[in-house]
Amino acid sequence: MSTIFDSGDASLYDIRTKVPGPKGQLPITPEMLLNRPSGDLFGWTLNAGMGWDPAKLGGREVLLLSTHGGIRRPDGSPVALGYHTGHWEVGLLVEAAAEELSRLGAVPFAGACTDPCDGRSQGTPGMFDSLPYRNDAAMVFRRLIRSLPTRRGVIGVATCDKGLPAMMMALAAQHDMPCVLVPGGVTLLAEDGEDAGKVQTIGARFSHGQITLEEAADMGCRACASPGGGCQFLGTAATAQVVAEALGMTLPHSALAPSGHPIWLDMAKRSGRAVLELGKLGWTMSTLLTDAALENAMVTHAAFGGSTNLILHIPAVAHQAGLRRPTVDDWSRINKLVPRLVDALPNGPRNHPTVQVFLAGAVPEVMLHLRKMGLLNLQAKTAAGGTLEDSLNWWEQSERRAELHKVLRDRDGIDPTNVIFSADSARARGIGSTVCFPTGNLSPDGSVIKSTSIDPSVIDADNVYRKRGPAKVFTSEPAAIRAIKEGKIEAGDIMVLMSRGPMGSGMEETYQVTSALKHLPFGKHVALITDARFSGVSTGACIGHVSPEALAGGPIGRLQDGDTIEIIIDRNSLEGHVNLLGADGTAASGTELLSNREPHPGIQADPLLPKDTRLWGLLQEVSGGPWGGCVYDVDAIAAALEAGREALRQKS
Fold first, then answer.
1. 101, 357, 600, 647: most buried by Cβ count inside 10 Å?
2. pLDDT in tens, 247-277
């Protein structure tokens, strides 16, 4: 204990109590002394104390917020690890933007609220904090913004599943402030290895004898091949970057840049210039975030075939921006209208990593096709200081586009038109719209499935997925994955994972179940129905977001082992149904059966659910639930509290 009490270094005791202090004088004026708050004046004192040149304190103050995590040495080696690669290098983006702001005479400030990793918490109680973290972090970011009263602009830097949506929500709330979002980019694939999605199934594959221990150890070590950026697939992190750009919050061709590369750092530098230009134009987030921009984002999301988790995040951004939140009918309308135009992991057919999507042109390239189809609001404004039309006109003729397409052809031997294709080409390849919203007696308020991610070999000749099978019911994810590993799930089964919605588990992500099914030989013959959500990399006959959730009285909570369930997903019309069938084989008798049943005896909030998450679950339910973005609607919460108080008064 002696080395804990004291290091034994006598030089530590050489302590000074006074120092000369910073040189120079604050550039204050009589008007400032008479009229400015003391906090503004003392803020300059603090700035000088931190080493900023007092003579330069009059510049425009810009706050840079990020999700940076970990401590890196100058050579990039770790002193202390972050939670994930997605925030490991974002400090470099903050630094690049800050240097440019300083060069232009502005005064940059930096703050951070780091973010968790859904991959790290997969299958653990840590997942119960994942989606609730988003609301908390957005609140912290908003508080940090307001806590710098002299700010004249904000740049947000974030990468991954919850940190990036939180940043988008925080910036969207800055109605009267110029803001620019800098997405943290993507990590690279190993030259000989698996992607970060498939590698998360090594446990399930090992349990079924698909891989050896040595193979698992080798592949697990190399899947995150470069130290920074979000995962290599079009999951929630990558999709959120795409959506942020489609909303106009980023500069053109910012989403999915390879982390650590010069082109990635250059994006941050130019974003520093852009936030100052937006200030000169008088453009704020209310200028950029409009109903037109929201429609563009939803259209682009559909064209990419993006993560279904954005169905939670886009309404949340809209709510913070003061816009109408899209409904399930809006989502269904757009997804029926817009074909998928991108071939990326995990949707296929060739499964290009996100960095190749970036080289193929990413968002602006997809938008060129959407423009030809007449599906975009071209007068929507962007962080570049012009309209979306201006951005697309630049991209179409740009050297950047030509050079990056050439890199993709020459270095990887891939034609960009095989990564991002026109509507006619998509149709010729048999690729249709992606997301379907099934209803039925088990999901009266709707549910979600990536219809084009169902294995083609189980689709009927008329392009309809039909499945009828016995329910195998689970009330916890560990029990479900254990059943898979122990061989208790068979081809033909329909797994039901209930009580895992917002009030049951914080609406946990169930990727270890969906990924195990994808990468096991019989998995394509198994379906999954749940009131939880999925990772953006999930594929297969997996129906999530089943509403109402079990703990909110949803009929999914009345299912029993052995029940006959029928799933029909029409990939032509994007119509779908998920029903319990009664003894006579009809949905009508199944509806009657459900109405007369008690809830499953295992229905309860998870015993390990944190009180913080339970509170989040209650507040978001009052505020519109998952289809409303799992937000905190203060007016709705206040009304519910008042109604509750009135009910208590009448009861007493």
1. 357
2. 999 999 999 999 999 999 999 999 999 999 9
